[in-house]
Amino acid sequence: MPRAFFHPLAEQDLKDITYFIAQDDVDRALAFAEELEAICQKRALFPAAGKACDHLLSGGRCFPYKNYIIYYRSVPKLNAIEILHILHGARDHERIMRDEHYGH
């Protein structure tokens, strides 16, 4: 079965999002983190369904979830997708993605 795994940058994004929401509501923060993880696992079933974002990442794709954009790439040899970043829509995605390096 296809799966999603998280690049360390995406893991940090998830922690940061959870921490930010937890400032107001810990239960909602934990539930939202679970939602994000679940939606990423569902996307692994249909990796080509995301929007191509080659201008930010060669072979990369993205999709929205609530106020966030989730960036990922397909890893066919692992039957998986790698979640690269989870960014709030108001952030400067081009700068962030340009400044990162995603080795295999």
From TrEMBL:
Pfam families: ParE_toxin (PF05016). InterPro entries: RelE/ParE_toxin, RelE/ParE_toxin_dom_sf, TA_system_RelE-like_toxin. Keywords: Toxin-antitoxin system. The keyword Membrane does not apply. Belongs to the RelE toxin family. This is Plasmid stabilization system protein ParE. It comes from Nitrospirillum amazonense.
